[in-house]
Specification:
This is ABC-2 type transport system ATP-binding protein. Pfam families: ABC_tran (PF00005). InterPro entries: AAA+_ATPase, ABC_transporter-like_ATP-bd, P-loop_NTPase. GO terms for molecular function: ATP binding; ATP hydrolysis activity. The strands form two sheets. The protein has a six-stranded mixed beta sheet with strand order 6-7-8-3-9-10, sandwiched between helices. A four-stranded antiparallel beta sheet has the order 2-1-4-5, covered by helices on one side. It is globular and about 50 Å long. The two termini are about 35 Å apart. Helix 3 crosses helix 4 and helix 4 packs across helix 5. About 35% of the residues lie in helices and about 25% in strands. The chain has about 240 residues and is of the alpha/beta class. The chain has one domain: P-loop containing nucleotide triphosphate hydrolases (Rossmann fold, 3-Layer(aba) Sandwich), CATH 3.40.50. It contains nine helices and ten strands.
Length: about 240
C-alpha cells in the first residue's frame, strides 16, 4: 500500500516542472504534498495516478512500478484531481453507478449506497450534479475516488473553494479515510496541513526542499509557525 517515489523529473518544453524528487508515503499516515502555486504539485499527482508519464525516475505504488503497470495501478488508487471532471448532466446516484460499473464492481447498488452514506450525500443523491453546490460536487468527486475501496488515495487540492462548514466536514472525512489507506494530499494551505497531515513533502520551483514528519518539522523550526516555515523554505 505504500508509495515510493525515486528521482522523478518532468519537463514541459524547456521548463522543468519537477526536478529529481524522491519521497515515500506510508499506510495509515496522511502525507501533505506542499508547495506554492506552480511548484509542480499537480504534475507529480498526475504522474503518481498514472495519467502522465515522467521523463525520468520511477514511482512504485503497492509494489508496482508505474511505467509498466499503469492500468493495474489505476485500479488500486483513488484520484481526485484539482478540477474534478464530473458529468454534470447525470444524477448523483446515476453517476456513481456509472463509475462503479467502469471498475467492474459487483453489487453496484450496495456500493453506491455505502459511498453516498460515507461522504454525506444522502440528501443530494437524487439531484443532478449540475444543481449541487461546490461543496457537494467535491463530495461527489471524493465518492467516485473511493467507491472501489482503493488502497491509495491521491487528492489534489480537495478542499479548494469550500466554505468553513464544508471544509471541516471534508477534512474529517479525509482523516477517517486515512486511518487504513495511504493518502497523499496536495495543498498550499497551511491550516489544511495542521488539521489533517502526519508527514510533509515540500517542493518549490520543481525541487524538493523538505521531507519530514510534521512533528519533526516543527521541532526543527521551533520558534516559527508552519506558515513562516513554508515561506522560508519556498522563498
Amino acid at each position: 500500500m505504500s508509495i515510493k517515489v525515486n528521482a522523478l523529473s518532468k519537463s514541459y518544453g524547456k521548463q522543468k516542472a519537477i526536478d529529481n524528487i524522491s519521497f515515500e508515503a506510508s499506510p495509515g499516515r496522511i502525507l501533505g504534498f506542499l508547495g506554492p502555486n506552480g511548484a509542480g504539485k499537480s504534475t507529480t499527482m498526475k504522474i503518481l495516478s498514472a495519467y502522465l508519464s515522467a521523463d525520468a525516475g520511477e514511482a512504485v505504488i503497492c509494489g508496482l512500478g508505474i511505467r509498466d503497470n499503469a492500468l493495474e495501478i489505476k485500479k488500486r488508487i483513488g484520484y481526485l484531481p484539482e478540477h474534478t471532471p464530473l458529468y454534470v448532466d447525470m444524477y448523483v446516484k446515476e453517476f456513481l453507478a456509472f463509475v462503479a460499473e467502469s471498475y467492474g464492481l459487483k453489487g453496484i447498488d450496495l456500493k453506491v449506497k455505502e459511498v453516498i452514506t460515507k461522504v454525506g450525500l444522502e440528501a443530494e443523491q437524487f439531484k443532478k450534479i449540475s444543481m449541487l453546490s461546490k461543496g457537494y460536487k467535491q463530495r461527489v468527486g471524493l465518492a467516485q475516488a473511493i467507491i472501489h475501496d482503493p488502497q491509495v488515495l491521491i487528492l489534489d487540492e480537495p478542499t479548494s473553494g469550500l466554505d468553513p462548514n464544508q471544509l471541516l466536514e471534508i477534512r474529517s472525512l479525509i482523516r477517517n479515510l486515512g486511518q487504513n489507506k495511504t493518502v497523499i494530499l496536495s495543498t498550499h494551505i497551511m491550516q489544511e496541513v495542521e488539521a489533517i497531515c502526519d508527514d510533509v513533502v515540500i517542493i518549490s520551483k520543481g525541487k524538493l526542499v523538505a521531507v519530514s514528519s510534521l512533528q519533526e518539522l516543527r521541532e526543527k523550526h521551533r520558534n516559527s509557525s508552519l506558515e513562516e516555515i513554508f515561506r522560508k523554505l519556498t522563498a
